[in-house]
Design goal:
Number of strands: 18
InterPro entries: LRR_dom_sf
Organism: Amblyomma americanum
Protein name: Ran gtpase-activating protein
Radius of gyration: 24 Å
Largest sheet: 14 strands, mixed
Structural class: alpha/beta
CATH topology of the largest domain: Leucine-rich repeat, LRR (right-handed beta-alpha superhelix)
CATH class of the largest domain: Alpha Beta
């Protein structure tokens, strides 16, 4: 193992010597819970092994990991992906035993770090998941990243958010995949997301939103309306506030580029029938997954009409308590639909009459290839039916 050789990936056509020496390097990296993987020809991913226990003292391991990661990133342009675990810093990060900083320093001849294309950062609170201390990424190092194409961040608190917002602004012309999980959706974050001119996939997950009630729904509506390049939106919220989906439905009605929409909002203040009405006229959506507490009987006609008339949807996933009337209307619609291929009920509460109506439709539907039902108790007579 030669630690003095320079990276030979001077162009996209040439591979670095490190690619053919991964086994010897990984023998050392495994000791600090990391590994190097060739995730595409000639390009490496430096990844945290969350299942790998560390034999050394936590602080010693963190210091060694931070040094080795910093050294590799600075010297090897062939490493395009960085996936690592970071400590959540206390208010005074200089306290002993907190963690060790990862220094993302560009080569001496560059002002920015251009080789990292994909960043995955997961933060943990001290003591969680058996982790007492680990590496952390200072904001000034995070801001050296330029030309990012993919960023996935799962934060245990909001301390990383100011730096993350700056990174989104700094890489707004290059980011294509954005996946952010954090406790709160702030207005600063929403404004940064609205600047992503080339983003193709946006996933947001949070527990609460900043500001007045409904601001989360407004944020999603604004993003669907102002990011025409996005083809996939995934929105997961555990907020205690109820959501009004009318704005989201209106955005879906007007959007002609969106192909995947996932909505996990378990408290809603309005009926889902507006969302189903928008699905009826939408001409681009291929996959729709929605999880709500209840899909009540008032939605039945809108759901049935949407599935009867929509000619592009290939996958429909429903989760929640679904009334028998809705299932009956869906069953009738499926006998007329000629495009839907997969129908999933995940974690749903379905009445047996609704399941029977759906099964009857399967005799006439010609396009459905996969139907997944939740577990439900059934006797011999019910199973035969």
């Amino acid at each position: 193992m030669d630690s003095t050789r320079a990276c030979t990936a001077v162009s996209s056509q040439k591979s670095c010597w490190l690619v053919s020496n991964l086994d010897s390097w990984n023998e050392m990296l495994y000791a600090i819970s990391y590994e190097l993987v060739e995730y595409r020809p000639g390009k490496l991913s430096l990844r945290y092994l969350k299942e790998k226990p560390v034999d050394r003292r936590p602080m010693t391991s963190a210091q060694q990991a931070a040094y080795m990661i910093s050294w590799l990133i600075e010297r090897h342009a062939c490493i395009e992906e960085l996936r690592f675990l970071s400590s959540v810093l206390p208010d005074n990060p200089t306290l002993p035993g907190v963690g060790a900083p990862i220094r993302l320093r560009p080569p001496p001849e560059q002002s920015d770090l251009h080789n990292i294309r994909r960043l995955e950062l997961r933060t943990c609170l001290p003591g969680s998941n058996g982790v007492t201390t680990c590496c952390y990424l200072p904001e000034e190092d995070l801001l050296t990243l330029c030309g990012l194409e993919s960023i996935r961040v799962a934060c245990a608190d909001s301390k990383h958010e100011p730096g993350l917002v700056k990174v989104l602004h700094r890489n707004s012309d290059s980011l294509r995949i954005v996946d952010i999980t954090q406790p709160m959706l702030s207005q600063d974050m929403v404004e940064a997301l609205q600047c992503l001119s080339k983003s193709e996939s946006v996933a947001l997950s949070f527990c609460r939103q900043q500001g007045e009630s409904g601001s989360g729904t407004d944020a999603l509506t604004r993003l669907v309306q102002t990011l025409p390049s996005v083809k996939a939106f995934r929105f997961y919220s555990l907020t205690v506030q109820a959501w009004n989906v009318c704005g989201v439905a209106d955005a879906l009605r007007k959007n002609e580029n969106l192909t995947t929409l996932e909505l996990y909002m378990f408290r809603v203040s309005s009926s889902l029938k507006d969302l189903f009405a928008a699905l009826e006229v939408n001409t681009s959506l291929k996959e729709l997954r929605i999880a709500f507490r209840t899909v009540d009987a008032s939605c039945g006609d809108a759901l049935g009409s949407a599935i009867s008339n929509n000619a592009c949807l290939l996958y429909l996933g429903l989760s929640g308590q679904i009334a028998d009337y809705c299932m009956a209307r869906l069953a009738v619609a499926l006998s007329q639909n000629a495009t839907l291929e997969k129908l999933h009920f995940s974690g749903s509460s379905l009445g047996f009459n609704g399941i029977l109506a759906l099964c009857d439709t399967l005799r006439t539907n010609k396009t459905l290839k996969e139907v997944v039902l939740p577990h439900f108790p059934a006797g011999d007579s019910e199973s035969n039916a």
